Amino acid sequence: MENAKRVPSLDLARDLDTAFGVDFFAEFYPLVVRYAYPSWFLPYVELEREASVIRSFQSQVIPGLLQTEAYARAMLTPVRPDNLDDLVAARMTRQAIFERAAPPRTWFIVDEQALRRKIGGPDVMAEQLERLLAAGQEPRIVIQVVPDAIAAHPGLAGPFTLLTFDEGKGPKSDGRKPPHDVLHVDAFSQGRTALDATEVTAATHAYDLLRSYALSPEDSAVLIGDHLEGLKKA
């Protein structure tokens, strides 16, 4: 974090205040985070930190929560952002949710196209696939792949993520009880977060269908391993 490789968490900021006997780090934490994440994405990141269950579908790239630093950098570089280092650091910091005492239960479904797209070249992609295989061994992480043989599936409209919250957590709308699930939809310029129950229900149905189209976690690991072996032989 001192070298700007990761963005500090709010918990760390508070711990530093306690350790040094000051009221400084937590006070300036919002400013640090504001510049680390795009303004439209920050609310989603805050929700992601509180989620007890995360269900994500990606069609073109590996989900951000599972990306290696090299893969993330290679993916973001072509966009030529002015703050590339900040964006990479912010993406890596999101993965701190797996270090929680009780990590969220996560379910990732990816299209096989994301495995074929050699972002960063063979070496970077091989490291990324090894990361996927390792993550898939974690008790609270499930990874499934929709194989190329499935020409049409419910995820063709684009990537999306569903967040589920424990009682009393999650965003509040108009002073009412927080919704149980929240939908986040990726888009070209910026994503959007939806609380509408009808839209969330439709996305939940689509995700359930995607799970039925995808290979089992075990068969998905075999397919990921096959792509990894292909990269090593190239």
Question: What is the structure about, briefly put?
Answer:
The protein has 234 residues and is an alpha/beta fold.
Count of structural domains = 1
User: What letter string, H or E per element, gives the SSE order?
Assistant: HHHEHHEHHEEEEHH
Largest sheet: 6 strands, mixed
CATH class label:
Alpha Beta
Residue fraction in strands: 5-15%
List low-confidence stretches. none
Number of strands: 6
In percent, how helical is the residue content?
40-55%
- Per CATH, the architecture is 2-Layer Sandwich
How many DSSP helices? 9
How far is the first residue's CA from the last residue's CA?
Answer: 36 Å
> In which order are the strands of the major sheet placed?
3-2-1-4-5-6
Could you please say which CATH topology applies here? Endonuclease, Chain A
The whole-number mean of residue pLDDT values reads 89
Shape: globular
Radius of gyration: 18 Å
Oligomer: single chain
Task: Decide which structural class fits the backbone.
Answer: alpha/beta
